[in-house]
Specification:
Number of strands: 0
Shape: elongated
Largest sheet: none
Order of helices and strands: HHH
Strand content: under 5%
Radius of gyration: 25 Å
Distance between the termini: 88 Å
Number of helices: 3
Length: about 110
């Protein structure tokens, strides 16, 4: 009977340590700036990916006639703005300056 109790306590202790381990990170020293930049870059990449995937899905829905043209244009404009905002944030994080394109035909 004692063996069962000891085994149960060891199992409960193991689970408690397993659950509490990630919580210990909260109380440790703050991450370095490079880690913060990497996390911000991952978030911006994710946001860009979501916006571009939504644009592709929107274009498919428009092509199949599920969305009116006025709605398509309004939604696409908002999604493009989100994607461009994420890309600008990535450029800023990476230290790239935005490149201005000249109008077509003008060199």
């Amino acid at each position: 009977m004692v063996t069962i109790w000891i085994t149960a306590l060891m199992l409960i202790g193991s689970v408690a340590l397993f659950v509490a381990a990630p919580l210990a990170e909260v109380f440790t020293t703050r991450k370095a700036a490079a880690d913060d930049d990497a996390e911000a870059a991952r978030l911006l990449e994710h946001q860009r990916g979501l916006a571009t995937a939504a644009i592709r899905e929107l274009e498919f829905d428009f092509a199949t006639g599920k969305i009116a043209e006025a709605d398509f244009r309004a939604i696409r404009e908002r999604l493009e703005a989100r994607a461009l905002q994420a890309m600008a944030g990535l450029d800023q994080l990476r230290g790239n300056r935005p490149v201005r394109k000249s109008p077509q035909g003008a060199d």
